[in-house]
Amino acid sequence: MWGMKNRWNPWRSLRCRPDVTLVFADPGPGTLGRVDYAHQLITLHPDLLQTERRSTLTHELIHLERGPAAPGCEAREELCVDREAALRLVELADLVTAAQWTDDVHELAFELWVDPDTVRVRLRHLTGREHAVLARVRASRDGESSDDGGDAVEVETWA
Predict the structure, then answer these.
(1) Domain of 39?
(2) Is residue 19 part of a domain?
(3) What is the model's pLDDT at position 4?
(4) Can you give the CATH number for the domain in which 19 is found?
(5) What is the C-alpha to C-alpha distance for residues 59 and 57, in angstroms, rounded to an integer?
(6) Closest CA to 135 of 122, 114, 154
(7) CB-based contacts of 51: which residues, under 8 Å, 6+ apart?
(8) Is there a domain that residue 47 lies in?
(9) CA atoms within 13 A on the CB side of 19
(10) Which pLDDT value is given to residue 14?
């Protein structure tokens, strides 16, 4: 992580939001974090690992930025927030650096200082250009040729 160039820092972002309160408490069954929009309160589960805290805090901050989901659109909103959090936390340059030595989601997550779910979301939402870049990195790492630009790489190979 120390060599990563990632510019997004959820803790710095939180410091810039004096209107938001963060507490560590149980946010509810099966939940790592929760937002109370009325009180501008983020609750994170106290047992989260640091990478999980970073990923979950980013997710909850984005919820606050976007506001409550329209009724019936909660699932779609979760997908949008997941994607935005993954984009903020995992920049392509950092992903490329990590992919130079591994395809394992858990190793990538460790290297990128996020939880594995964030890596999975980021990989599911790669652009065509990003797929090509990662395919070239993987081919170079594995000693293979990537004369087609690598567009045929399947995201499922990263899951």
Answers:
(1) 10-125
(2) yes
(3) 52
(4) 3.30.2010
(5) 5
(6) 154
(7) 109, 110, 113, 114, 115
(8) yes
(9) 8
(10) 97
Residue from 122, 125, 123, 118 nearest 59 by CA = 118
Structural domain contains residue 63 = yes
**Radius of gyration for the alpha carbons in the chain, expressed in angstroms and rounded:** 17
Longest dimension (CA), the chain: 55
Task: Judge whether 52 and 115 are in contact, CB under 8 Å.
Answer: yes
Q: What is the 3-state secondary structure (H, E, C) of the chain?
A: CCCCCCCCCHHHHHHCCCCCEEEECCCCCCCCEEEECCCCEEEECCCCCHHHHHHHHHHHHHHHHHCCCCCCCHHHHHHHHHHHHHHHHCCHHHHHHHHCCCCCHHHHHHHHCCCHHHHHHHHHCCCHHHHHHHHHHHHHHCCCCCCCCCCCCCHHHHC
**Residue 24 domain-assigned?**
yes
pLDDT-flagged residues of the chain (< 70): 1-6, 145-159
Amino acid in the structure at residue 4:
M
Structural tokens at position 122: 């980021």
Place of tokens 């640091």: 50
CB neighbours (10 Å) of residue 143?
A: 6
Work out how many domains the chain is built from and give that number: 1
